[in-house]
Specification:
The chain is mainly α. 47% of the residues lie in helices and 6% in strands. The longest helix is centred in the first third of the chain and has 15 residues, at 10-24.
Length: 171
């Protein structure tokens, strides 16, 4: 049977490293990529350094186009990161989770999850996990376009268009 540590994903390592730095330095707002990489080496994780750098550089960063939906980290400035917080801006594809699942990280780091949940606050955590800003924007538009510029309802306009299709004989 494989241990949890053997199955630890690079993205979870990235979260653990930045969470550890944040936990150890509660007065700090963010950390440089160099500090994060130094902590990664100190913690002795087994993933390739190049993979870790890619995950901290973009794959787990909510406001950097990284082709990964997770929102573990936030870029505060070029080459600076902190943990994601509710209300942080995200790129469109960043709609995933903001914390690793409890069973995905080694027992010795699980206290960081409890700390992060407390830090976020229960209601903020739920909101951040379920937030889809792009979808929220679409919902706000609902009902905004009930009438066309000519004063017709959208339904009337569509019926008129479809009537023209029918009269073309299916061409």
């Amino acid at each position: 049977m494989q241990s949890v540590a053997a199955k630890l994903k690079v993205k979870d390592e990235a979260w653990i490293v930045v969470a550890s730095l944040s936990y150890e330095n509660p007065d700090r707002y963010d950390f440089s990529l160099a500090e994060i990489f130094e902590k990664f080496l100190e913690m002795g994780f087994e993933s390739r350094p190049s993979s870790f750098r890619a995950h901290v550089g973009q794959h787990t960063v909510s406001n950097v186009d990284g082709h990964n939906p997770c929102r573990y980290l936030y870029q505060t400035a070029p080459r600076r990161r902190r943990l994601f917080l509710e209300g942080d801006e995200c790129v469109a594809e960043a709609t995933g989770k903001i914390l690793p699942d409890l069973d995905e990280i080694p027992v010795k780091y699980r206290f960081l999850l409890e700390w992060a949940e407390t830090r976020l606050g229960e209601s903020r955590l739920v909101s951040a996990k379920t937030s889809n800003r792009w979808l929220d924007a679409l919902v706000k538009l609902q009902g905004s376009f009930r009438y066309t510029a000519s004063g017709q309802t959208v339904d009337q306009y569509v019926r008129e268009l479809r009537a023209d299709w029918d009269s073309d004989g299916g061409a």
